Amino acid sequence: MKKTAGIHHITAIVGHPQENVDFYAGILGLRLIKKTVNFDDPGTYHLYFGDDGGKPGTIITFFPWAGAAQGKIGGGQVGVTTYAIPVGSLVYWETRLSKFAIRYEKTSRFGETYLQFEDYHGLQLELVERADGQLNHWTFGEVTPDVAIKGFGGAILYSTDPNSTIETLQETMGLEKIAEEDDLIRLRAYGEIGNIIDVKQSALAQGIMGVGTVHHIAWRAKDEADHVDWQDYVYNKGYGVTEIKDRNYFNAIYFREYGDILFEIATDTPGFAHDESYETMGQSLKLPTQYESAREKLITNLIPIEVRELD
């Protein structure tokens, strides 16, 4: 039986790209590790935010569509994206969210306390203290490594067929059920980050894709050889899995599980520093080879963005 270490990345749809950068870099203190385009729609940015090195399990990515219609969060989606912060930093984040007039709610489940809030475009987020996972050594504004977001804690999944989604997580992705509380089942992958998945047991009507919704959740494969094994494994489990797609910073395959959530499996390799140095990641617009000849046209059509300190 194959087992994923946990989440590789989560990709969402948002609105204006500058608002997106301001929220995730300026307020949450994440590093913009890659500025590129949607390989399937090069007129749109694909922005990646993560820890200092853009390690798997820390990366949230966005397709920003300024002026696009608002989506509706529902079945077949990641309902809430969970970020892990260092133990003892929750009060800091309460103060920081309040400083930027971001309304939050303090909740608890499975013995943990969460700060739940929305980004500027309606994406549902939460922060939870976790001891596991390396510190994020990126400093930006007043966000320093002792309080910085380490990466994903996990996610809450909303399904149109929760039993099928849970079965996929256990029998195909290799997660282990560890707890049950109220309407949630908690599963865990073996990695230290992006490893805790809560699934809402009540089926939800299918969500509507648009601004403020998650497009897909990606799981980790170790390398290219492991990735090929995953493709065969998923196919033999009865899912319609795509061909392997080269995303420049990882290889990807996709399949939709029977609760309608789009799953990706992505390689940890080669990572985000192979076309930029660690020091310069995210500073330049990086294009795949097939779009390099259209660089000037693409730059003209893309909305200018900058990483700004908001403190």
TrEMBL record:
CDD domains: PcpA_C_like, PcpA_N_like. Residues 6-130, 151-268 form the VOC domain. SUPFAM superfamilies: Glyoxalase/Bleomycin resistance protein/Dihydroxybiphenyl dioxygenase. Pfam families: Glyoxalase (PF00903). It comes from the Bacteria. This is Glyoxalase family protein. It comes from Carnobacterium viridans.
